[in-house]
Amino acid sequence: MVSPGDIEQGQATPSLIDISNKPSPFSLKNRVMRTLWGVTYLLLFRPSPRPLHGWRRALLKVFGAKLGRGTKVFSSAKIWAPWNLEMGDFSTIAPDVDCYSAARISIGSNSTVSQYSYLCAASHDFRVANMPLYTKPITIGSQVWVCADVFVAPGVVIHDGVVVGARSSVFRDLPPWTVCTGSPAMPRGPRKVSAQGGVSR
Predict the structure, then answer these.
(1) Cβ distance 92 to 112 under 8 Å?
(2) CA distance 70 to 81
(3) Is 36 helix (H, G, I), strand (E, B) or coil?
(4) With 50 as the cut, is the pLDDT of residue 159 above it?
(5) Which residue, 19, 47, 55, 89, could crosslink 109 as a Cys pair with Cβ 3.0–4.6 Å?
């Protein structure tokens, strides 16, 4: 493995390698299923009217998603592989969320992933010349709010009760019942919920 220090000191020079035609790391079955899902998404899921959450749940379940009662996945959300998606009761994936579920993405009950967020369960190892793909699951607990335009990296666990502020980037696990913001996202304080159901700030 070439370290950045080696390159800076002139001890190693990275060679140019064509990575555009490398074979897919996914099985033939995976690729066939994604093709079938892509057609279903374009013809039946994406054009469905906004209120038809039950219809979209049914389509996702046909492709292996595990969805609890009252879950909502909006029609403009992108689900890469439904069989790797798990959602607890009354959780929501909002419009224009990109759910790159190359590995399992699990969302607990009563949680919301807001619009334009990107749940990214795969990346590339840039330390290897041909940059092989690797996958790691993402776990989002119950009563979590992932606010608008948040990036969640592979392998991250967002524990119960966390609020992730808008446009944050989550690269490490976040502790339960905290409010986290920034890039990288860090805890800024506890999330306190009143007995009446409101949130104290």
Answers:
(1) yes
(2) 20
(3) helix
(4) yes
(5) 89
Residue 96: left if φ>0, alpha if ψ -120 to 50, beta else—which one? left
- Among 129, 97, 138, residue whose Cα is nearest residue 116: 97
At 59-113, the pLDDT tens digits run 999 999 999 999 999 999 999 999 999 999 999 999 999 999 999 999 999 999 9
Tokens of 58: 């049914």
| Single-letter amino acid, residue 35 | T
* Torsion angle of C-alpha atoms 189, 193, 198, 201, degrees rounded to 10: -20
Query: Could you tell me whether strands 133-135 and 122-124 are parallel, antiparallel, or unpaired per DSSP bridges?
Result: antiparallel
Task: Show the tokens assigned to 79.
Answer: 């689900």
Residue 1: pLDDT over 50:
no
Question: Scanning the structure block, which residue is given the tokens 């292996």?
Answer: 64
The C-alpha atoms of residue 71 and residue 53 are separated, in whole angstroms, by 8
pTM (2 d.p.): 0.86
The secondary element (H helix, E strand) that includes residue 138 is strand 138-140
3-class DSSP assignment, residue 91: coil
Q: Is the pLDDT of residue 145 over 70?
A: yes
Query: Residue with structure tokens 């990107």?
Result: 118
